[in-house]
Amino acid sequence: MPHTSTTPPAAQHHHNSLTRIGWRRLRRDRIGFSALCIVGAYLLLALAAWSGLVASHWQDEVAHPYAPPTLFAGAAPHHVELNAADIDAADRRATSAAALDSSGATGLSASEDPLAADLAAAQQQSAQYRSTEQARADSLPLGADQRGRDVLQKLLQGSATSLQVGIAGALLALTIGTVLGALSGYFGGLLDDLLMWGYSVFTSVPDMLLLLAFAAVSGRGIGTVVLVMAFTSWTGTFRLMRAEFLKHKGREYVRAADAIGAGHGRRMFHHILPNVSHLLLVQFSMLTVALIKYEAILSFLGFGVGVTQVSWGAMLAEAPAELLQGYWWQMLAVTLCMSLLVTAFSLLSDSLRDALDPKVK
Amino acid sequence: MNPTPPLLSVRKLRVSFRDEHGHGAEAVKGISFDIPAGKTVALVGESGSGKSVTAMAITRLLPEHGCHIAADSEILFDGRNLLTASRRELRRLRGGDIAMVFQEPMSSLNPVYSVGEQIIETLMLHTRVGRKAAYQRAVALLKEVGLPTPDRKMSSYPHQLSGGQQQRVMIAMAIACEPKLLIADEPTTALDVTIQQQILQLLAGLQKKHGMAVLFISHDLELVGQFADEVVVMHHGSIHEHAPVQQIFEAPQDPYTKALLRCRPHLAQRPARLPVIKDFLGDSCYFEPPQRQRGYQADDRVILEVQGLCVDYHSRHGWFGGRHSQRAVDEVSFTLMRGRTLGIVGESGCGKSTLGLALMRLQQASVGRVLFEGEDMLALTPRQLRDYKRRIQIVFQNPYASLNPRFSVAQILTEPMLLHGIGCDAEERLQLAGDWLEHVGLPRKALAKYPHEFSGGQRQRIAIARCLTMHPEILICDESVSALDVSVQAQVLNLLQALQDELGLSYLFISHDLAVVKHLSDQVLVMQHGRCVELADADTLYAAPQHPYTRQLLDAIPQGWPHCIKPRVA
Fold it and tell me: Domains of chain A by range and CATH?
């Protein structure tokens, strides 16, 4: 028996755990740290948008359709807004032209018009309401879309959706991949064979096809998108974790854990998992980037988030029609915003890999 | 003044490394020594002494980034300063006039090229010979380094050769271009003792035949004594003693050299406590401790009895292929007495580690019985085994790998107590962990640190403390001191001895080092190819070995200076 002394248990000084060393290394990496700051800023904005602090009124039509960005108010293509009088005038012009051509053979008289009664009733009713003309802005900081919604607000709300989908999808994919990979690598044998077969079947189908098939079956909405993407992207993590667990289970520290009586679960998730967690962190940031891009593609193709929600992909889906008419600002804003985040996330992955690798010391 | 200048002279070599914070650490602190042509100079020191850095500086293989060689340092080879030589010049010298042999032959040979290809490449790079002539020469070289059937070996790949054969190939490559200087950096450390002797004899023979100068780098003073003309003892980056080999062994001047010579266990004596470096560096005079008597006594009680233990490794070839099994431990039987030590010796691959793992049921045994106080451990259910597992613990070889790097020392030490319900709450367990830490000679405040903040010896102490927290009765030490420097090894051996005296632990001491085993063991079991070839009381076995393999092992132990294997030129 050791003698029991009365000194208090050692105060928890800030000693250099590997995590702390990794953090310090990341702090010193200028590129990695700026990338981390950018990603952090995005997350804060997304959180604010998600909780309704900013951009909660993104659906309001606050400007004229296709109002240009403030800076380019003069340079933007001219937008002609048609009102009822214009249409009537055009209609009249067309009618008279037609009448001239074919000597009035095609025109309908008032008694023949089947809608005449309804029209009259509607005109009577409309007299009961007072129509107010809302003041609409001529230009917005980042312009407006076809319904006159603020692109900036849509962008913020879209970031929230995209990040939410990306992060939730990545976490789910990571969890599936890690648990299956850990079981497969740690226990090996028949379980490993079975899981590997499942994995092979899964990966033999082209990713995009699988994604679209899942999406087509399960309808639209954020929840569906997250599930669909998680189910298609766990495979990389599975292989990685399987290999890591296979490698680590034979290490002496795991054998030592066995010797002191730690069970399988404890050895897997208490001993090995922290030692591969740096890989998971890197995997997480890479997956998030990939899933944000996937979400954009899905929404672009019409399988993404619902019509009442906005995401980067949904915004990009509007771009082709807009570009045709020369309204470039929505597409440019989304593209810049997305590439900044994706680039920052990728750089962060690289820096994390360098900073957290316990071998490089 | 010597009329013939030395082949290589190192002058005021000063090398410093800069870490990521920008703090410089001086690895070599202005050393100077000469290597005369045709002589063997040994550079001896423990890890971190700067001996390998010196060798790397000579071949200019130090990393360019983060490493700084002082401006006034000079390394003159044949009158040329290597530190200022151009890359072109260096490429011609390396592999040509200066050749190197490294510690790990497996990782020094390229695994995707045949052995012959690699030797031919060296030859064709440095000499103007055609491919055919190079092939002939390569075969001759393989023959010279003593490889059987050199013609066939030319087309072998490195993994098809044993460790000793790989090292012979490395040596063949090194001497291919008749170098003037051969740098051998721990060339035998990764090899078994019997192979080690063969490689040393080969090197000694080649050195004499080709008249090369050899810079022999080693941590083992005894080994060096057989082979070197001059010995340079390094410690913390500076030279402590530089003298002819005879003087080093017969009249060492420096206290550090004396300590190095003494702290390694010797076959001839068994002090109660091994001397450590500190005993010699202080002012007080070192007194010889009394000798310790070893061997099983008549009134000893049996704690562990192993009967006919066999362990098989199974491998499956493909899905439908048959199962192949290989017997790693074959019918081994022995008894361990309470409070005594059983040493298990053998070369790598003899099954001694597998035996240790099987006793703990970390490896499944196929046949046999392991009776722990009469209870067959191999027949216990996992639930019953839990309590037995606590009573028999293991300390692994590599202290760098056996501690979870993500855990603090407190976590490492409290986890076993948590699992076995020792101590009633977290605070008490932390208290106990601190007590055990002090018990193994580490300060209590080390609890908050992480494994990477400790040296190898300290980590091994933590690993021992982790076992002790469970109050084990048997401790299996699987090569537990093999990865440590001799001075640290002495400290850990002393700790193990003190713990045995105090707590009455029984040890199974597994090692390839016969001198260490002799120091600590009451009985010794010699294993070869999974079988027990000899089992006897330690003193009996070392005095009168019965089995030829035991004799072979004993002969292979480096004996130091008086047992010089090298025929000297009169």
Answer: 18-58+150-356 (1.10.3720.10)
